[in-house]
Write a structure and sequence with these properties.
With 345 residues, the protein is an alpha/beta fold. It has two domains: 3-16 and 159-207, no CATH class; 34-157 and 209-300 and 335-344, Rossmann fold (3-Layer(aba) Sandwich), CATH 3.40.50. It is built from 14 helices and 16 strands. The chain has helices at residues 3-14, 19-28, 33-36, 49-52, 54-71, 87-96, 100-104, 115-124, 191-197, 210-226, 272-281, 292-298, 301-309, 314-328, and strands spanning 17-18, 76-81, 106-111, 131-133, 145-150, 159-164, 166-175, 180-187, 205-208, 228-237, 247-250, 253-255, 265-267, 270-271, 285-291, 337-344. The strands form three sheets. Strands 2, 3, 4, 5, 10, 14, 15 and 16 form an eight-stranded mixed beta sheet that branches. A hairpin with a 2-residue loop joins β11 (247-250) and β12 (253-255). α5 crosses α6 (87-96), α10 (210-226) packs parallel to α11 (272-281) and α13 (301-309) packs antiparallel against α14 (314-328). It starts with a helix and ends with a strand.
């Protein structure tokens, strides 16, 4: 059964589904988009910072190594959530080759649900005793951990709400005679949801992801119990926006979520204010929260670019400059992408 047919049957049986359930079915059920496809790359649907330039992975690696030298200095779990093609990890391992103590201390685990990407990682990542898992479930939990992710939490399904006097939720129906999906709405009556929506009163729109909250809580509990640090980079906001952020992308072009069902990327901006509140609730230290631009520049990406440009031809220099601008410029990835570092030692 196709993803589209599965969704239609769900709607026929229930009358409607919320936006979050629609996304969950599209992305994670049966042969869903995130389970079997390779969405990453210039020839696919989107490209992430590590694929844009080695500069991103290299300065990120230096940040993690410096953190280990200052805070850990012993054997540790190195965990990447959603490693994609393995580009970021490979940059990290390559830079780590200059620090054999760090490299020897690594117990590597990759958390990956996508069967295609898992096989790609197994081909691309050259590190002895690498562990793969579909769920966050570390076996070596008696040592500290460095856990990190890049463009991971934006993929979690969100439910959408808006306020017109009363809070309403966007829902999805199916018109059997016209054979198409349509948006509708229903009044929110659940007291727990209404309580959660109170903080959105001044903007009057809300995107809430219960699965994202649950997953981040899982990471926080693990860090609190076993010590370590979690670094996450994603596009999102701290101050609530006055608009909904859900978007779908197919072959690097924005689409409608009812198009290419089960075959396109669907994401929403991450509410970093919520993540920070959750980390604080677990009494974790907020070590850093800033834009990707500030993070990369502080970590030395400009100096790395200048070094890479030495004795290079004009074409290579031009590409390095373009990649650098894409990563740090306010109008591109520099401002919308945020970096959050939380820890417990």
């Amino acid at each position: 059964m196709t993803i589209e047919k599965l969704i239609i049957n769900k709607i026929i049986n229930k009358g409607s589904i919320d936006v979050g359930e629609f996304i969950q079915l599209c992305q994670f059920e049966n042969d869903g988009y995130y389970l079997n496809n390779n969405p990453i790359g210039r020839k696919n649907d989107f490209i992430t910072s590590p694929e844009i330039s080695q500069m991103f992975g290299e300065v990120f690696a230096i940040f993690l190594i410096n953190y280990w030298e200052k805070k850990i200095k012993t054997n540790f779990n190195l965990v990447e959530l959603g490693p994609g093609t393995g580009a970021l990890l490979n940059d990290l391992l390559r830079i780590s080759s200059n620090n054999q103590k760090f490299l020897n201390a690594i117990n590597l685990t990759l958390i990956e649900k996508n069967k295609y990407l898992m096989q790609l990682q197994k081909s691309n990542v050259n590190f002895e005793n690498t562990n793969w898992s579909e769920e966050f479930n570390l076996q070596n939990n008696n040592i500290p951990s460095i856990i990190y992710s890049n463009e991971f939490f934006d993929c979690f399904p969100v439910r959408q709400f808006y306020k017109k006097g009363k809070w309403c939720e966007k829902i999805i129906k199916y018109n059997n005679s016209e054979k198409n999906f349509t948006f509708s709405s229903k009044k929110v009556e659940d007291n727990k949801i209404l309580k959660n929506l109170e903080k959105f009163d001044h903007v009057k729109v809300a995107e809430i992801s219960e699965s994202r909250t649950k997953y981040f809580n899982l990471i926080c509990k693990f860090i609190k119990k076993n010590k370590g640090v979690f670094v996450t980079i994603d596009y999102g906001y701290k101050n609530l926006p006055n608009h909904l952020s859900l978007q779908s992308v197919y072959n690097h072009k924005k689409t409608h979520i009812f198009e290419n069902i089960g075959n396109q990327d669907i994401t929403a901006h991450v509410n970093f204010d919520e993540l920070i509140d959750l980390a604080n609730a677990h009494n974790l230290q907020i070590d850093l929260f800033c834009t990707q631009k500030d993070f990369l520049i502080t970590c030395g990406i400009k100096e790395r670019k200048n070094n890479l440009q030495k004795n290079k031809n004009e074409e290579t220099i031009k590409k390095l400059n373009l990649d650098y601008k894409r990563l740090v410029n306010k109008s591109q990835m520099g401002e919308i992408f945020k970096v959050l570092v939380v820890s417990c030692f």
